[in-house]
Amino acid sequence: MVSKKVRILFTIPNFITAGSGMEMMNIIDRLDKEIFEPYICVQQEGGRLFDEAKEKGYHVLVQPFMVSGVAGMISILKHARTLAGGFKKYKFDIWQSFNWSSDYSEALIAKFAGAKYVYVKKNMNWDRAAWKVKSFLSNSIIARNTTMFRCFFAPPYLKTKTHFIPGAVDVKMFYPEKDKTARAAYHIPDDAVLITCVAQLVRVKDQLTLVKAVANIEQVYVLLAGAARDDEYVAELYSLIDSLGLKNRVILAGPVSNVNVLLNASDIFVLPTTDAGGHEEGSPVSLIEAMATKLPCIASNVSGSRDLIQTNETGLLFKPENVEELTACINKYLNEPEYADAMTEKAYEQVMKEHTLDIEAAEFEKVYKKMMRIK
Fold first, then answer.
1. Does one domain contain both 132 and 86?
2. Distance of alpha carbon 292 from its chain centroid, rounded?
3. Cα–Cα distance, 258 to 144 (Å, whole number)
């Protein structure tokens, strides 16, 4: 018990399009309320989680926490100080950002408001100078994968304040329960092999390589679940599917609301992310979800994914964009079911030991206590 509760401001642009809203809410819900008093700030109201936060009695603010439409450091500093005035009265101790952009003006506003700033590094972008400024201004940084420590946060002044907290899933929502009834909606035979990939349809996710890999494997269906975010890429996908004669076996399902049901109706999960352009993965939640449902997993050997998948331990890795290697991985699972079962058991154990929401929230809380020197 502390004499005065630690006030934490959790920021996210909105609860409408920002995909990290649920993760942020899960952490807030699990905080020790005897020690911490959470506030939430969005720049745009609306969305189911916005209403849910208010219903739960959390303090919800709607006001800008980033400088916009201003160029030049002097102007940014001036506007940041002005915006900080709207936060000073709350006397926040910690400012936890779930805003994934490289915009460092939020860190400045937090500083001017008297709060210690911490942000989550979710993606593998690092080419902008703004990331370095944002990291320099931070009191703490949450890194989502181990590659970040080697590539981004190796300098001592960053390494000492960076903490590794990987992604997590709700194991009450994602769990093994083999049930093939979901196949009916997509006209997939019960006796067919179903490979599923849950990822946005964008070039970096490289569903093209997966489609090519199954072209010569009979009785294999592929379901690509995810929102279309790149019209040119989606058109290329359709063209490839048509040219390989796979229109009856490769399905673009769009966003799927009940992913657990889909995963439990599948036989193999593949996340074929490319490393072209240096994007890779942060900590791919869809892969953790598949591991939680005891689905045999295959992933490209990129950052984030290789933290979760170790070949011959928790799944199989293949070289990004290498069709032959991916095909071999799929065939290994198909030809050696006992091997596949061994991988799923180990992967499930890893999720339960390292990637539950309770574990994730506890790790965030440790960071906050360290920042405030609470034992």
1. yes
2. 15
3. 25
Residues 134 and 254 reside in one and the same domain? no
Tokens standing for residue 104 = 């460092």
**Centroid of chain to Cα 81:** 32
Strands 59-62 and 162-164: unpaired
pLDDT tens-place values along the chain, 375 residues long: 557 899 999 999 999 875 689 999 999 999 999 999 999 999 999 999 999 999 999 999 999 999 988 888 889 999 999 999 999 999 999 999 999 899 999 999 999 999 999 999 999 999 899 999 999 999 999 999 999 999 999 999 999 999 999 999 999 999 999 899 999 999 999 999 999 999 999 999 999 999 999 998 988 999 999 999 999 999 999 999 999 999 999 999 999 989 999 999 999 999 999 998 888 999 999 999 999 999 999 999 999 999 999 999 999 999 999 999 999 999 999 999 999 999 999 999 999 999 999 999 999 999 999 999 998
Give the tokens for residue 274.
Answer: 């490319």
Pairing of strands 36-42, 6-11: parallel
Length of the chain: 375
Is 90 within a domain? yes
Same domain? 251 vs 328: yes
Which residues fall within 8 angstroms of residue 147, CB to CB, at 6 or more apart? Answer: 124, 280, 303, 304, 307
Nearest to 213 by CA among 322, 299, 316: 322
The beta-strand segments (E) located in 208-352 are 220-225, 250-254, 268-271, 297-300, 316-318
pTM listed for this prediction: 0.93
Shared domain check, 306 and 328: yes
Of 225, 221, 299, the residue nearest 260 (C-alpha) = 225
Residue 174 lies in a domain: no
Contacts 24+ apart (CB under 8 A), 251-256: 251/186, 251/188, 251/221, 251/222, 251/223, 251/224, 252/201, 252/224, 252/228, 253/186, 253/223, 253/224, 253/225, 254/225, 254/226, 254/227, 254/228, 255/225, 255/226, 255/227, 256/198, 256/225
* Integer Cα distance of 40 and 24 in angstroms: 10
Per the structure, the complete domain to which residue 36 belongs is given by 6-168+357-372
Euclidean distance between CA atoms 319 and 167, whole angstroms = 23
